[in-house]
Amino acid sequence: MVENGDWDDLLRRVNVRKGDFFYVPSGTIHAIGKGIMILETQQSSDITYRVYDYDRTDGQGNKRELHIQSSAEVTRYPHDVKQQVKTTASLRDLTMTCLVKADYFTVYHWQLDGIAETPLQKDYLLASVIGGKGEMIVDGTRFAMQTGDHLILPASVRDYELKGTMELIVSHE
């Protein structure tokens, strides 16, 4: 199918809507369609294999290198869709939904409407504001937060407070 370019028969398309969450395990061929904006959380890796590139070319008319054999060696086929059990907890004005707990990372969807004091203590937190605005207070210093902001809360921070009406994606190891 790859050699013949039968991508529609080989791969499945998934219609997406704003707010969808998909867990794509390592070894799964995936692509991001035109006009789709994503927030991708992944385990650290310096390897990406390109299986198909939509026949795009550079300024000299050259197509980018494909990695068909390497991809075939690591691809899990057929794709095994494992449903993650979402769990939700509330802490004062914060609702925390665990979207996925994988071997190397955990991802949450947080909805804040008010105040939350130190809702999660881990070695670090990666947070992306995907809606609303508010602030984070660390050692008396206020940091404004709004849609599109991303931050890393390092292990040295043990106490923090969130205020506002915000929707965040938060992850840790």
Protein architecture, described:
The chain is elongated and about 60 Å long. Strands 1, 2, 3, 4, 5, 6 and 7 form a seven-stranded antiparallel beta sheet that branches. With 173 residues, the protein is mainly β. 10% of the residues are buried. The two termini are 37 Å apart. The longest helix is centred in the middle third of the chain and has 7 residues, at 68-74. The chain has two domains: 1-83, Sandwich (Jelly Rolls), CATH 2.60.120; 87-172, Jelly Rolls (Sandwich), CATH 2.60.120. A hairpin with a 2-residue loop joins β4 and β5. The model has no long low-confidence stretch (mean pLDDT 89). The protein contains two helices and seven strands. The chain has helices at 7-10, 68-74; strands spanning 87-91, 94-101, 106-117, 125-138, 141-146, 150-153, 161-172. Helix content is 6%, strand content 35%.
